[in-house]
Specification:
Layout lengths: L11 E5 L5 E6 L5 E7 L5 E7 L2 H6 L5 E3 L5 E11 L5 E9 L13 E7 H14 L11 E3 L8 E6 L4 H12 L2 E7 L4 E7 L15 E3 L5 E9 L6 E6 L13 E6 L10 E5 L6 E3 L5 E3 L2 H17 L4 E8 L18 E6 L4 E14 L3 E8 L5 H13 L1
Parallel strand pairs: 9-12, 13-21, 15-17
Antiparallel strand pairs: 1-2, 1-5, 3-4, 3-22, 4-7, 5-6, 6-7, 8-10, 11-12, 14-20, 15-16, 18-19, 20-23, 21-22, 22-23
Helix pairs in contact: 2-3, 3-4
Length: 393
């Protein structure tokens, strides 16, 4: 069940004690503003503004965990204290949901998966690097995994030298999956979970459809964003060893993936250098094997899909939904994060099916929920991260 009003907010604060227990050290009752964001394929973020009081001084500290009573929780990472000329003293705290812990672990070794379910790959990456690593000091405390439902389709995937979080987001984005870390303090658990949203659009008949429309005043404010500048739909992936003096030299392979039948102005190509994808890998026994051309091309295709996913048709609709009176579709009852719903804004002339990729609770004296359908336009930081990721390959 999601929050429906500011009155329901109970902002609990947890610490981990010396005995490895989650301890509820109090509740933040005095704050002026709280933004609490959730996301489908990445961590959420929060911002908190609160007065500096004796109680808040003991609660708002870096490393403490904030919890609203649902499955997600936030880690306090930034704390700022301000004092104004009129004597007003305030906290500004920021942080991210517990998925950010996965940024703190690198891939211990190169990973190589041949034709497995995307969810299976994601669970295995987390198990080997965060839950049951060979080097036990790398284990993330309390972390365990839910049962693999074998979803997301079968892919081949190879990766070297990234964080666990980066690898998970790549696989999730290309397979339409979401991932999260559920917070269960009373059972001393953090549960890594891979899941898939449900198609609830008007174009399917399996489940009840969900539509948000300006005609019934579901949408109070909205903005529609459409950008094709960086959009690419065909990837030319170049792989193979480049050095002919290498004893394992393989001729370079050029592989086309994506909307390969596209022609004319509709065809938008992207060059992908994938010479870091190795033809010679180690099997589970540590013996070197040469990948077959079929398997190798599957991994080139996966890399191409990842790069195309970073050059999407950038289209999103951000909307503030009505929370008072009769609400036709209730969050976490009729639809959930990751579901595909239908958006109809007849004023803008927009009607589209889009995934619920994120939402933010805005809590002051009032309560609103800002939704993001599709993917929000990239920030400068996101653009920089994409560039850095390409440079690392």
């Amino acid at each position: 069940m999601g929050l429906k009003s500011a009155k329901e907010v109970q902002l609990n604060v947890f610490q981990v004690d010396d005995n490895g227990n989650f301890i509820n050290i109090g509740e933040i009752n005095q704050f002026t503003n709280l933004e609490w964001g959730k996301a489908y394929q990445e961590y959420g973020e929060f911002k908190l503004e609160a007065p500096i009081t004796k109680e808040n001084l003991s609660l708002i500290k870096e490393g403490n965990i904030l919890w609203l009573g649902e499955e997600d929780a936030m880690l306090i990472q930034i704390v700022k204290q301000d004092s104004s000329s009129d004597g007003e003293m305030t906290f500004e705290a920021e942080g991210r949901s517990l998925e950010c812990l996965l940024e703190q672990r690198c891939l211990w070794d190169s990973v190589n998966y041949e034709t497995q379910y995307a969810s299976t790959i994601m669970y295995d990456i987390v198990a080997k690097n965060c839950i049951s690593p060979v080097l036990t000091k790398r284990k993330i405390p309390f972390l365990e995994a839910s049962t693999d439902q074998k979803i997301g389709g079968q892919i081949s995937y190879q990766k070297i030298g990234e964080s666990v979080y980066e690898a998970l987001t790549e696989v999730a984005e290309t397979s339409g999956l979401g991932f999260r870390i559920k917070f269960d303090p009373y059972n001393k658990k953090l549960v890594f979970d891979v899941y898939a949203g449900t198609d609830r659009s008007v174009n399917q008949s399996t489940v009840s459809f969900v539509e948000f429309s300006t005609e019934v005043d579901d949408i109070l404010e909205s903005s529609f964003y459409h950008n094709v500048q960086d959009y690419r739909n065909v990837a030319w992936v170049w792989g193979g060893e480049m050095d002919p003096d290498d004893e394992n030299y393989q001729p370079q392979i050029k592989y086309e993936t994506g909307a390969i039948e596209s022609v004319g102005f509709a065809r938008k190509e992207l060059f992908v250098d994938a010479d870091d994808i190795e033809r010679v890998v180690s099997d589970k026994d540590g013996d070197e094997i040469v990948l077959s051309e079929t398997v190798y091309k599957e991994q080139l295709a996966q890399r191409g899909q990842e790069e195309l996913g970073e050059n999407p048709l950038s289209e999103s609709l951000e909307a503030e939904l009505r929370q008072f009176g009769f609400v036709q579709n209730v969050l976490d009852e009729d639809y959930f994060l990751g579901d595909i719903v239908t958006i109809s804004n007849y004023i803008m002339g927009v009607r589209t099916d889009a995934r619920v990729t994120g939402y933010t609770y805005n809590i002051t004296n009032d309560f609103t929920i800002d939704m993001t359908f599709g993917y929000g336009y990239p920030t400068l930081l996101e653009a920089v991260k994409r560039t850095v990721r390409r440079m690392k390959r």
